[in-house]
Amino acid sequence: MPSKSTKVPMSKIERPVADEQHLSPMQRKLRKFKRDPKLFLVDSKAYVGTRKTLYLTWAKLGSFILVLLASLLVVVYYSVIASPRYTSQTQFVVKQADDNQLAIPGLAAIGAASPATRDALIIQKYILSSEMALALDKSVGLKAHFEQPQWDALSRLKANSTQEEYLEYYQQRISVIYDEMSEIVLVEVQSFDADYSLLLANSLLELSETFINQLGLKMAKQQLSYAETEVERAHNILKQQQVKLIAFQDTHQLLSPETQSGALLSAVHQLEAELISQQTELKGLQAYMRADTAEVRALQYRIDALTEQLQQEQSKLTSKDQASLNKLGADFKEIELNAKLGADLYASALTSLELVRSEAYKKLKHLLIVEYPRLAEEDTYPKRGYSIITWFAVLLLIYFIGRLAVAVIKEHRE
Q1: Which of 91, 151, 165, 368 could disulfide-link to 83, CB 3.0 to 4.6 Å?
Q2: pLDDT (0 to 100) of residue 130
Q3: Three-class SS of residue 365?
Q4: Read out DSSP for 296-360?
Q5: CA quadruple 37, 43, 49, 50: dihedral sign
Q6: Chain center to CA of 148
């Protein structure tokens, strides 16, 4: 009688092995991943293949793989990450109202700059200055535009930047080129938005025009102010001398001592002639008449009266008295001369004022626009292909210099 087979129970070690045989490959991988993820990754074919590939690549390329990796990062940055920058440019010429300066001949022209060249260089410095940077920030919010977080971190201006950092970044985004032959100033502005670049260029052009106009106008105003001050001073001097002249005439009741002296001198001459005539007649009478006769005595009285009158009139002309006409005439001449000098000074100041006005107009500066800013249709910067090639060349140069330095060091060690 056959014996019944008895089932032997599985041990704890054999049971997982039996369960493992019934699992699918995917289930076994998931089970292994749950138990030890690190071991799962190390034992994976992808990891082993990648490690083997990197080992072979390093064996073949060596440290040159670093150059390739850095170049790959550069390609990724300029192809995907780098924010596009749009440009808008304008061209203008700075001219004076009177710009007919003759060319400086010979050796004197060496080192000499024309007024147009000096003005262009001044406006070039102004555009790149902190004054322009702050003015643009105030008018169009330039600093805030450069700091916006949507631009890539390497291209944008860092948030809460200082004025010095903002100025340095601003000067990197503004290009000013002066052509000495044509005397044209070319200005190119960059921003991260095409419409904003156009707005920025127009604002910069407006501020530059205001600056160059104020530059010439300020000089003209200073010259005019000085000339007008001189005219006012000369007019005050003239008024003071005229007041003195009128006061002198009113005090002495003389319109002109010179005219009065002429009339008085004519009267003296007439008295002298009449006195001589009377004295001659008296001598004739005394020849045949006695001195106490009525005719002789009457004639003598008349001669005495003429003599007294003559002395009085002569004393008016010249005497030690301050009121004599010769002294009044001298004082009057001095006052009249000062009045004439004041009038001449006033006339000269008026002439100078008109001349300064004419010259001031000639020195006024104007900004003549050759090319107005236009809206960009394509981004200009960064120049992706050029930048990638340049960076690759730089990395190659650094790599070969490093290899050469390492080789030299090894050779000296040996």
Answers
A1: 151
A2: 93
A3: strand
A4: HHHHHHHHHHHHHHHHHHHHHHS-SSTTSHHHHHHHHHHHHHHHHHHHHHHHHHHHHHHHHHHHH
A5: positive
A6: 30
> CB neighbours (10 Å) of residue 204?
24
Q: Coil, strand or helix: which one is 381?
A: strand
Tell me phi and psi for residue 410, to 5 degrees.
-65, -40
CA atoms 42, 45, 46, 50: torsion sign: positive
What distance in Å separates the CA atoms of residue 180 and residue 86, rounded to the nearest whole number? Answer: 27
Query: How high does pLDDT run on average in the chain?
Result: 76
Three-state SS string across 162-223, please?
CHHHHHHHHHHHEEEEEECCCCEEEEEEEECCHHHHHHHHHHHHHHHHHHHHHHHHHHHHHH
Tokens coding 326:
């010769």
Residue 10, SS3 per DSSP: coil
Cα within 13 Å of Cα(16), Cβ side: 4
User: Which tokens in the block code for residue 333?
Assistant: 């001449």
Tens-digit pLDDT profile for residues 306-355: 777 666 665 555 555 545 555 556 666 777 777 788 888 888 888 888 88
Q: What is the pLDDT of residue 297?
A: 74
Q: 3-state DSSP call for residue 93?
A: strand
How many of the other CB atoms lie within 10 Å of CB of 300?
Answer: 16
Distance CA 12, CA 223 (A): 112
Which 8-state DSSP code applies to residue 54? Answer: H
For 140, residues 6+ apart whose C-beta sits below 8 A from its C-beta are 196, 199, 200, 203
Tell me the pLDDT tens digit for each residue of 273-291. Answer: 777 777 777 677 666 767 6
Task: Tell me the per-residue pLDDT of 77-131, one tens digit each, with 9 for 90 and over.
Answer: 888 898 999 999 999 998 876 655 544 444 444 444 677 788 889 999 999 999 9
Which residues are CB-contacts of 347 (< 8 A; sequence separation ≥ 6)? none
First-to-final CA distance of the chain: 91
State yes or no: cis peptide before 382, omega within 30 of 0: yes
Of 171, 92, 59, the C-alpha closest to 125 is: 171
Report the DSSP beta bridge partners of residue 368.
93
Distance of alpha carbon 122 from alpha carbon 114, whole angstroms: 12
pTM of the model: 0.59
